[in-house]
Design a protein that fits this description.
Length: 267
Protein backbone atom coordinates (compact mmCIF):
# COMPACT_ATOMS: atom_id res chain seq x y z
CA UNK A 1 0.00 0.00 0.00
CA UNK A 2 1.07 3.58 -0.71
CA UNK A 3 -0.64 5.08 2.34
CA UNK A 4 2.52 6.25 4.10
CA UNK A 5 3.99 8.18 1.19
CA UNK A 6 0.55 9.55 0.28
CA UNK A 7 0.15 10.91 3.82
CA UNK A 8 3.57 12.54 3.62
CA UNK A 9 2.74 14.21 0.29
CA UNK A 10 -0.65 15.40 1.59
CA UNK A 11 0.96 16.90 4.68
CA UNK A 12 3.62 18.69 2.66
CA UNK A 13 0.96 19.98 0.29
CA UNK A 14 -0.73 21.50 3.35
CA UNK A 15 2.65 22.94 4.42
CA UNK A 16 2.25 21.42 7.88
CA UNK A 17 4.69 19.62 10.17
CA UNK A 18 4.14 16.14 11.60
CA UNK A 19 3.72 17.77 15.01
CA UNK A 20 0.93 20.04 13.75
CA UNK A 21 -0.95 17.23 12.00
CA UNK A 22 -0.65 14.81 14.92
CA UNK A 23 -2.04 17.43 17.33
CA UNK A 24 -4.99 18.12 15.02
CA UNK A 25 -5.76 14.39 14.86
CA UNK A 26 -5.21 13.74 18.58
CA UNK A 27 -2.23 11.44 17.91
CA UNK A 28 1.34 11.42 19.20
CA UNK A 29 3.99 12.63 16.79
CA UNK A 30 5.75 9.24 16.87
CA UNK A 31 2.50 7.44 15.99
CA UNK A 32 1.79 9.69 13.03
CA UNK A 33 5.43 9.52 11.91
CA UNK A 34 5.12 5.72 11.95
CA UNK A 35 2.19 5.91 9.53
CA UNK A 36 4.13 8.09 7.09
CA UNK A 37 7.25 5.91 7.28
CA UNK A 38 5.32 2.66 6.87
CA UNK A 39 6.39 1.36 10.28
CA UNK A 40 2.77 1.14 11.46
CA UNK A 41 -0.59 0.91 9.72
CA UNK A 42 -3.48 3.16 10.81
CA UNK A 43 -6.65 1.51 12.08
CA UNK A 44 -9.90 1.88 10.15
CA UNK A 45 -11.04 4.55 12.62
CA UNK A 46 -7.81 6.49 12.08
CA UNK A 47 -8.13 6.09 8.30
CA UNK A 48 -11.52 7.77 8.52
CA UNK A 49 -9.93 10.61 10.52
CA UNK A 50 -7.15 11.00 7.94
CA UNK A 51 -9.66 10.91 5.09
CA UNK A 52 -11.76 13.67 6.66
CA UNK A 53 -8.73 15.76 7.60
CA UNK A 54 -7.11 15.72 4.18
CA UNK A 55 -10.48 15.60 2.31
CA UNK A 56 -9.36 12.56 0.35
CA UNK A 57 -11.29 9.28 0.02
CA UNK A 58 -9.98 6.22 1.85
CA UNK A 59 -10.01 4.30 -1.43
CA UNK A 60 -7.72 6.96 -2.95
CA UNK A 61 -5.36 6.86 0.03
CA UNK A 62 -4.99 3.10 -0.30
CA UNK A 63 -5.01 2.57 -4.07
CA UNK A 64 -3.55 5.69 -5.70
CA UNK A 65 0.04 6.87 -5.88
CA UNK A 66 -0.03 10.58 -5.10
CA UNK A 67 3.55 10.90 -6.35
CA UNK A 68 2.14 10.67 -9.89
CA UNK A 69 -0.42 13.45 -9.35
CA UNK A 70 -0.38 16.41 -11.72
CA UNK A 71 -0.85 20.04 -10.73
CA UNK A 72 -4.50 19.71 -11.76
CA UNK A 73 -4.94 16.69 -9.44
CA UNK A 74 -3.47 18.62 -6.49
CA UNK A 75 -5.67 21.59 -7.35
CA UNK A 76 -8.74 19.38 -7.02
CA UNK A 77 -7.56 18.12 -3.63
CA UNK A 78 -6.99 21.71 -2.47
CA UNK A 79 -10.57 22.52 -3.48
CA UNK A 80 -11.90 19.42 -1.77
CA UNK A 81 -13.06 17.75 -5.01
CA UNK A 82 -12.83 14.01 -4.54
CA UNK A 83 -16.24 12.86 -5.76
CA UNK A 84 -16.53 10.89 -8.98
CA UNK A 85 -18.90 13.30 -10.72
CA UNK A 86 -18.64 11.50 -14.07
CA UNK A 87 -19.80 8.20 -12.65
CA UNK A 88 -16.73 6.46 -14.09
CA UNK A 89 -16.51 4.39 -10.91
CA UNK A 90 -19.53 2.36 -9.89
CA UNK A 91 -21.75 3.93 -7.24
CA UNK A 92 -23.30 1.10 -5.27
CA UNK A 93 -27.08 1.47 -5.15
CA UNK A 94 -29.02 -0.77 -2.81
CA UNK A 95 -32.43 -1.62 -4.28
CA UNK A 96 -35.32 -4.08 -4.17
CA UNK A 97 -36.54 -6.35 -6.96
CA UNK A 98 -39.89 -8.11 -7.40
CA UNK A 99 -40.48 -11.87 -7.36
CA UNK A 100 -40.07 -11.73 -11.13
CA UNK A 101 -36.60 -10.19 -10.57
CA UNK A 102 -37.72 -6.82 -11.93
CA UNK A 103 -36.92 -3.41 -10.47
CA UNK A 104 -39.64 -1.83 -8.32
CA UNK A 105 -40.04 1.70 -7.00
CA UNK A 106 -39.17 1.98 -3.33
CA UNK A 107 -41.25 4.60 -1.54
CA UNK A 108 -39.64 6.55 1.29
CA UNK A 109 -42.48 7.32 3.76
CA UNK A 110 -42.43 10.62 5.63
CA UNK A 111 -41.63 8.83 8.89
CA UNK A 112 -38.57 7.21 7.28
CA UNK A 113 -37.08 10.25 5.54
CA UNK A 114 -35.02 11.30 8.57
CA UNK A 115 -33.05 8.05 8.43
CA UNK A 116 -32.52 7.94 4.67
CA UNK A 117 -29.17 9.76 4.66
CA UNK A 118 -27.71 7.05 6.89
CA UNK A 119 -29.77 4.09 5.62
CA UNK A 120 -29.72 4.71 1.85
CA UNK A 121 -27.01 2.05 1.34
CA UNK A 122 -28.21 -0.32 4.07
CA UNK A 123 -29.98 -3.39 2.58
CA UNK A 124 -32.03 -3.84 5.78
CA UNK A 125 -33.31 -0.25 5.65
CA UNK A 126 -34.21 -0.48 1.94
CA UNK A 127 -35.74 -3.97 2.14
CA UNK A 128 -38.55 -2.93 4.51
CA UNK A 129 -39.68 0.07 2.45
CA UNK A 130 -43.06 -0.16 0.68
CA UNK A 131 -42.75 -0.69 -3.08
CA UNK A 132 -44.91 -0.19 -6.16
CA UNK A 133 -44.65 -0.19 -9.96
CA UNK A 134 -45.75 2.17 -12.71
CA UNK A 135 -46.13 0.55 -16.16
CA UNK A 136 -45.30 3.72 -18.10
CA UNK A 137 -41.78 4.02 -16.61
CA UNK A 138 -38.75 2.47 -18.30
CA UNK A 139 -37.65 -0.93 -17.04
CA UNK A 140 -34.08 0.01 -17.94
CA UNK A 141 -33.86 2.76 -15.33
CA UNK A 142 -33.96 2.89 -11.53
CA UNK A 143 -36.67 4.93 -9.79
CA UNK A 144 -37.45 5.83 -6.19
CA UNK A 145 -40.21 7.87 -4.56
CA UNK A 146 -39.34 10.60 -2.06
CA UNK A 147 -41.55 12.58 0.38
CA UNK A 148 -41.65 16.36 0.00
CA UNK A 149 -41.93 18.71 2.97
CA UNK A 150 -42.54 22.45 3.04
CA UNK A 151 -43.56 24.96 0.39
CA UNK A 152 -40.24 25.75 -1.32
CA UNK A 153 -40.99 23.97 -4.62
CA UNK A 154 -44.47 24.88 -5.91
CA UNK A 155 -46.51 23.54 -7.61
CA UNK A 156 -45.26 20.42 -5.77
CA UNK A 157 -46.92 20.82 -2.39
CA UNK A 158 -46.17 19.60 1.12
CA UNK A 159 -46.94 15.90 1.53
CA UNK A 160 -46.40 15.02 -2.14
CA UNK A 161 -44.30 12.09 -3.30
CA UNK A 162 -41.76 12.84 -6.04
CA UNK A 163 -40.82 9.93 -8.30
CA UNK A 164 -37.26 10.32 -9.53
CA UNK A 165 -34.70 8.51 -11.68
CA UNK A 166 -31.27 7.62 -10.28
CA UNK A 167 -28.41 9.68 -11.74
CA UNK A 168 -25.12 7.81 -12.03
CA UNK A 169 -23.22 10.43 -14.05
CA UNK A 170 -23.53 13.81 -12.34
CA UNK A 171 -22.11 15.55 -15.39
CA UNK A 172 -25.37 14.67 -17.19
CA UNK A 173 -27.28 16.98 -14.82
CA UNK A 174 -29.19 19.63 -16.76
CA UNK A 175 -29.04 23.25 -15.66
CA UNK A 176 -32.19 24.59 -14.03
CA UNK A 177 -33.99 21.21 -13.88
CA UNK A 178 -35.51 19.73 -10.69
CA UNK A 179 -33.70 16.95 -8.82
CA UNK A 180 -33.84 15.13 -5.53
CA UNK A 181 -30.50 15.69 -3.80
CA UNK A 182 -29.58 13.57 -0.79
CA UNK A 183 -26.96 15.28 1.38
CA UNK A 184 -25.14 14.26 4.53
CA UNK A 185 -26.42 17.22 6.56
CA UNK A 186 -29.85 18.07 5.11
CA UNK A 187 -31.01 14.61 4.02
CA UNK A 188 -33.60 14.66 1.24
CA UNK A 189 -34.03 18.00 -0.55
CA UNK A 190 -35.95 18.80 -3.74
CA UNK A 191 -34.46 21.69 -5.72
CA UNK A 192 -33.48 23.04 -9.11
CA UNK A 193 -29.75 22.48 -9.73
CA UNK A 194 -27.42 25.09 -11.22
CA UNK A 195 -23.67 25.05 -11.76
CA UNK A 196 -21.35 27.76 -10.45
CA UNK A 197 -18.93 29.28 -12.98
CA UNK A 198 -15.36 28.18 -12.39
CA UNK A 199 -16.33 25.72 -9.64
CA UNK A 200 -16.36 21.94 -10.03
CA UNK A 201 -16.71 21.28 -6.34
CA UNK A 202 -20.16 22.76 -5.74
CA UNK A 203 -23.74 22.91 -7.01
CA UNK A 204 -26.19 25.74 -6.41
CA UNK A 205 -29.63 24.62 -5.21
CA UNK A 206 -32.60 26.85 -6.08
CA UNK A 207 -36.23 26.82 -4.96
CA UNK A 208 -39.15 27.68 -7.24
CA UNK A 209 -40.58 29.70 -4.35
CA UNK A 210 -38.71 33.07 -4.52
CA UNK A 211 -39.03 33.48 -0.74
CA UNK A 212 -36.32 30.85 -0.33
CA UNK A 213 -32.77 31.98 -1.15
CA UNK A 214 -30.49 29.78 -3.30
CA UNK A 215 -27.61 28.11 -1.49
CA UNK A 216 -24.42 26.22 -2.28
CA UNK A 217 -23.71 22.57 -1.50
CA UNK A 218 -20.31 20.90 -1.86
CA UNK A 219 -20.27 17.78 -4.02
CA UNK A 220 -18.46 15.92 -1.24
CA UNK A 221 -21.55 16.37 0.95
CA UNK A 222 -23.87 14.81 -1.65
CA UNK A 223 -24.74 11.12 -1.29
CA UNK A 224 -27.17 10.64 -4.18
CA UNK A 225 -28.86 12.62 -6.96
CA UNK A 226 -32.18 11.63 -8.57
CA UNK A 227 -33.79 13.32 -11.60
CA UNK A 228 -37.42 14.44 -11.22
CA UNK A 229 -39.85 12.39 -13.33
CA UNK A 230 -43.31 13.12 -11.89
CA UNK A 231 -45.11 13.47 -8.60
CA UNK A 232 -48.16 12.23 -6.70
CA UNK A 233 -50.20 14.73 -4.72
CA UNK A 234 -53.55 15.05 -2.98
CA UNK A 235 -53.66 18.75 -3.88
CA UNK A 236 -54.78 20.21 -7.18
CA UNK A 237 -52.37 23.00 -8.24
CA UNK A 238 -54.03 26.42 -8.26
CA UNK A 239 -54.51 28.08 -11.64
CA UNK A 240 -53.26 31.65 -12.03
CA UNK A 241 -54.72 33.74 -14.83
CA UNK A 242 -52.69 36.32 -16.71
CA UNK A 243 -53.85 39.98 -16.85
CA UNK A 244 -55.17 39.43 -20.40
CA UNK A 245 -57.12 36.36 -19.33
CA UNK A 246 -58.64 38.24 -16.37
CA UNK A 247 -59.60 41.18 -18.62
CA UNK A 248 -61.23 38.81 -21.13
CA UNK A 249 -63.17 37.06 -18.34
CA UNK A 250 -64.52 40.43 -17.12
CA UNK A 251 -65.62 41.34 -20.67
CA UNK A 252 -67.38 37.99 -21.02
CA UNK A 253 -69.17 38.52 -17.70
CA UNK A 254 -70.23 42.01 -18.75
CA UNK A 255 -71.71 40.62 -21.98
CA UNK A 256 -73.63 38.00 -20.02
CA UNK A 257 -75.01 40.68 -17.67
CA UNK A 258 -76.15 42.80 -20.66
CA UNK A 259 -77.83 39.77 -22.25
CA UNK A 260 -79.65 38.96 -19.00
CA UNK A 261 -80.90 42.58 -18.71
CA UNK A 262 -82.19 42.50 -22.28
CA UNK A 263 -84.02 39.22 -21.64
CA UNK A 264 -85.67 40.67 -18.52
CA UNK A 265 -86.76 43.81 -20.43
CA UNK A 266 -88.21 41.74 -23.27
CA UNK A 267 -90.21 39.64 -20.81
Amino acid sequence: MKVGNNLKLLRKNRKMSQEEVSKRLGLTRSTYSGYENGVAEPSLETMVQLSDFYKVGIDELVRKDFATFTEKDWSKIDKGVRVDTKGANLRVLTSVVSKENEEVIEMIPENARAGYASGYSDPEYISVLPTFSLPFLSKEKKYRSFPISGDSMPPVSHGSQVIAEYVQNWESIKEGKPYIIVTKNDGIVFKLIARVNGRQDVFQLISTNPLYAPYIVNVNDILEIWRFVNYISNDLPSVKLSDNQIAQSIKDLQKEVVNLKNQLLDS
